[in-house]
Amino acid sequence: MKLKKDDVTQLGILSRLTIDERTISDVTSRLENVLRLVDQLQTADTENIEPMAHPQQDFQTLRKDEITEKNDQKAFQKLSKDICNDLYLVPKVIE
Amino acid sequence: MRWDSVIGLEIHVQLSTVTKIFSGASTLFGAKPNSQACAIDLAMPGTLPVLNSKAVDNAIMLGLAINAEIPPISIFERKNYFYPDLPKGYQTTQLEWPIIGKGKVPIFLKDGTKKEIRIHHAHLEEDAGKSLHSGSFGSGLSGIDLNRAGTPLIEIVTEPDLSSATEAVIFAKKIHSLVTSLGICDGHMAEGSLRFDVNVSVRPNGSTALGTRTETKNLNSFKFMKEAIILEIDRQIEILEDGGTVIQETRLYNGETKTGYSMRSKEEANDYRYFPCPDLLPVKITKSHVQEIQKKLPELPDERSIRLVSEYGIGAFEADILSTSKELSNYFEIVAGKCKNPKQAANWTLGELMGRLNTANLPIMESPVAAEDLGVLVERVCDHTISGKIAKQVFEAMWKGEGTADVIIRDRNLKQLTDLKTLNELVTSVISDNPKMVNDFITSGPQHRKKKLGGLMGQIMRRSKGQADPKRTNDLLARKLCELTNEQED
Questions:
Q1: A23 in reach of chain B (CB within 8 A)
Q2: Whole-prediction pTM
Q3: ipTM of this predicted complex?
Q4: Which of B281, B285, B286 is the mutation pick for testing A, counting most A CBs within 10 A?
């Protein structure tokens, strides 16, 4: 399946990624590779096969409504580049 | 041209579980930022969600309360979109197999008519974190607090069955009352425990085809919801009357500036690419589990409302408001029991008392006037000890903690004058002191006499410091004036 430039740009917007003129052809060909695999999967004959919601034929286990997690904020925030007043900082996303 | 408005609601109900929907982290409101976001909430690699049983039970309770279908199997899906307060890059929610199916919620309109609002479905999902766009971190940055990420929500989606802002508010209040009565949500709207998205469209009066709708998101008070709907209806009508077309879009409402505006197109361009979440297995709900929960359901607002109408003979509209919370209906029942006049008890509870509580922003449990005490005050109105007008003064004093009704009435000598002899003297003296007003009454046409009589009544009430029994005095005065008129005409 061939991807149009507009499709790739739109995907970039949806995933908040900058896909500029320099990278667009590379991204496009890699995405086309993924889609080729999907096409291959589509050729499988699924006639008379009942769809399933999950590969394990089982049901969800539930847990009790009890606190089991302790506050690991310090450890987690060490992984982040920018912290201010306990908040994770990110580039502003609203206009 | 006349227009009809068509309104549907999406209501996010934050469940009052102790922990998150998929993790054992606390959901307590107001904690230090990011102190309640665990590895699962932060979407750390290798973590897996495990569903909170209380969230499931809460959903079943709601389903039972809104007479909804509860399917045996429901499935969680991933709704993909990218936003910094959503660490996984997708929200775990439900789409095609929600936990609650079709249901209905009756509401009572002010004229007493009952209207049934259909529920399309209700589903379980997780809340996102919070983005703060201003702070000491400087411009160009947003601060992210993920404490709220993973808090369980039930989203209730209605059919477009509401036809005015007023109806939408009555319905929203009904849901508020339902979820708080069930104890599945604390109902604190200012803390975002209940949030509304409103879908609004308009169409020519009588038309059956739906117009293009817009969605105004994230309204967190009944007042803002009402304002936003009225504003949006007016905006759409204006566009259509000017020959334009309404664009389907997501909008926001600013309650402070009282303005609505469109969200940027980028925010809307989302294609959520839903698919069943491979991390969570289908949820099975057995009939016996539903029956177990059914047995434990508390008295619901509707049942309470029906009981109040049949036991006390009050109107359905009043009963419906009184039933919004157990505390409020209990209060009313104590007042009614004390004064033996349920209609007056309802009027006083919903009028004077609720008015003051709302102004002071106090819940009924913190009312400075106890139900027993209000009961005595209403009793004094019913037995004609004081007039309704004086009762309002007494209530005011009770509100300020200046004593009980009987003490205030006694100490301030507010007892109504009911003795016929005294009233007679009072009426006679006012008549003789105001010959001009009396003459005006006699010479005016019958249609003006009511107003003229009112003037003389005012004089009497002033002279008696408001204590003359209004009904008896009015009768006396009317009779006397009538006699004088007849004499004149003879």
A1: no
A2: 0.79
A3: 0.81
A4: B281
